[in-house]
Structure prediction request, 622 residues.
Amino acid sequence: MISYLQVEKLKKSFGDRVLFEDITFGIDKDQKVALVAKNGTGKTTLLNIIAGKDSPDEGKITFRRDIKIGFLEQIPPLNNNHSIIDEVFHASTTIKNAIIEYNKAIDAKNKDFLAEATEQMEHLQAWDYEVKVKQILTKLKINQYDQSIKNLSGGEKKRVALAKVLIEEPDLLLLDEPTNHLDLDMIEWLENYLKNTRSTLLMVTHDRYFLDRVCNEIIEMDNSQIFQYKGNYSYFIKKRDERLNAEEAQVEKAKNLLRKEEDWMRRMPKARTHKAKFRIDNFYELKDVAANTRNNDEMQINVQSSRMGKKIIHIKNLEKSFDDTVILKKFSYNFNRGEKIGIVGDNGTGKSTFLNLITGKIKPDSGSIDIGKTVVFGYYQQEGIKFNENQRVIDVVQEIAEVVTLGNGKEMSVKEFLNFFLFPYDMHYTPVYKLSGGEKRRLYLVTVLMRKPNFLILDEPTNDLDIMTLAVLEEYLATFDGCVIIVSHDRYFMDQVVSHLFVFKGNGVVKDFPGDYSQFREWAIKTEKERKKEIPSISKKEKSEKQKSTLKTKLSFNEKREFEQLEKEIEALESEKEQLEKEISSGKLKSADLMNKSNRVGEIMQLLDIKSDRWLELSEFL
Prediction:
């Protein structure tokens, strides 16, 4: 195997807090590796150190000579003065200029200018690069290439940064939460792209379906140690359970032996022989093993919810628009106790707006929302809450309550409750600004649940929460007897929790689908296939009838034949171009094939320009 990366005895601390130490592992060419750990363990810090954005306290990182590295950060640094296309092409200025000049030549319809621009494109082999750029941007739903970076939302910036790093096709690709801010279609596309890419991959993600389908190895950081699993997420879960059970058995065995050795230590004579000294040393080693208990690792959530009456929420003929964008149109629904509803749809279709309407944060244009008197909302918002960064963790929760009532009626102090949520006692007096992004999200979840809600609204709850916390949250929601609404792009999370979906289709249309996300996706794919079968037959018939009725009187016989032939040729060229683009982006082609097919795409684009111009010329006489 060809080694791409070696990490040796790495250590990193922030003040007196040790994130990790003595971390050692390697990544070979073609491996697709996921880094898994609890929040606060240092996953993002480790990626930053590997990418050269941070430095370790101790240890060494070695790369294979001359390999190209691409890094997608959680909050990517982009140049606000650039347009999207300038930012994406920033590392390839010569190719960018050639493509810009070529597009200008097409718009100007200047044949001499076009010939010169085409020659430069061929010289730089820029045809395949432009195809790749526009295809990736389109798949990530970035269509306004001239838009300024400074006017983009945080999610849009993350997608531009993702496109930028994918386009460069680095040898080693480092991705920190790549699925955040992507809708479900984008996630599925990225999943397939990364499975087929030739880049070696190291990523941090909470999306378990994504992880399961893309990665062939998992590195777990746990208790300042590294554990490697040669398999996907399903294999990792099985082997991790086996490891934890073995560790637990080892600790229990050490505790039993320790009791005997403690008795011997108390009775040991003062004159120490060599044999006695050896046994004393073993006693202290045994004591260390016995003390190696996990810090309440398997978190459980069991918080009492407020009593809920018969009337929950009745929605009737709800409508909402922003200027020309219609969010809801005549939407009606009555919620029942225990319902768990998932909300899916493209970005911008109004999912978060719907949640804000229900909770009264914004007002509808018309219609009514009648909320029962016993309903207590717990609203976990996508943007989270603004903590006082200098406030201590314990102060944040004590502002809400001094004690927490659990589902069994027992009370727990907030200190015990924080420990319950993987905030050990030594973290209670830590200022909020020292917490990781994931730890802040977990603290936010604590503050939501402490208020004993009976109607939970979770807007992208999986962003920045670690896999261990998500598994426990899923278990809690499955037994929660109140109502739950979830907006999430995490397919695994949705499948585990929801029983039916509101599908936001845009233009105010919301479909109520009876089933989980996987069932919906299966139905959507089948429906789309059936739709595609019907459309071509109708459109061809309409085209044919239109041509027969108009061509006879307005074009000569030869022109009619030419017009008909042009339509067939354009359609064939577009189909060939689409197929070639799929093959180019698959990552499976050898360099020679890739070059040939890319050259052919360039030829097709020129032919399409020429034939489309002639088709437009003839169509004026229809």
Observations:
- Residues 517-554 form the longest helix (38 residues).
- The radius of gyration is 30 Å.
